[in-house]
Amino acid sequence: MSIRKVAAAVLAASVLLSACASNGMYGGGGYDTQQLRFGVIQSITPVEIRDSGHYGIGSVIGTVAGGLLGSQIGGGTGRDVGALLGALGGGYLGSEVQQREAPAQPQMAQYVMVRMQNGVGVGVTQPPNPQLFVGENVVVQGSGPDARVIPQ
C-alpha cells in the first residue's frame, strides 16, 4: 500500500472522527442572517454548564498514530485493512484518553427569560452579563444556540 493511500485513509478517518467534536459550550457559530427581537427580562438565573472542551485533538492524534501503526501490519489488502482499523481504533482511544485527562470543567452562565413584544417567552443561556437586570428592555440577537440577550 502506498503512503498516499495510508495518508488518505488516515485523513478521512480523522475528519470523520473530529466531526463529532463540539464547537464550543455556548453555540455552533453558524453564519445565518441576524435576527433582532425586542422584549423585557422576566428573570435571570445563574446556572453552571459543562465546557465540552477540545476533544477533537485527541481523536485526530489517535487516528494518525493508529493509522500509521496499523499500516505496518501485513501486506496488500491486509495492510489497507490494518491501516483503516488502526485509524478508527486510534481515533476512538485518543478521544477517550483526552476526555479522561481533561474532563469537562463547570463554567458559570446565566439563563435569561425574556417576554417578547408579541407575548412569547424566550429563554437564552449565555455567558454572564452583569449589565442585565430584571425589567430591563432588551434585544434578543440571533437564534438557537447563538442567541444572546443584550441591553436595548
UniProtKB/TrEMBL annotation:
GO cellular component entries: outer membrane
UniProt entry keywords in alphabetical sequence: Membrane, Signal
Localization: Membrane
InterPro entries: Bact_OM_lipoprot/Surf_antigen (IPR051407), Gly_zipper_2TM_dom (IPR008816)
Keyword Oxidoreductase: no
Taxonomy, superkingdom: Bacteria
Domain Glycine zipper 2TM: 57-98
Chief location category: membrane
Residues making up the signal peptide according to the UniProt record: 1-21
UniProt protein name: Glycine zipper 2TM domain-containing protein
Species whose genome carries this gene: Crenobacter intestini
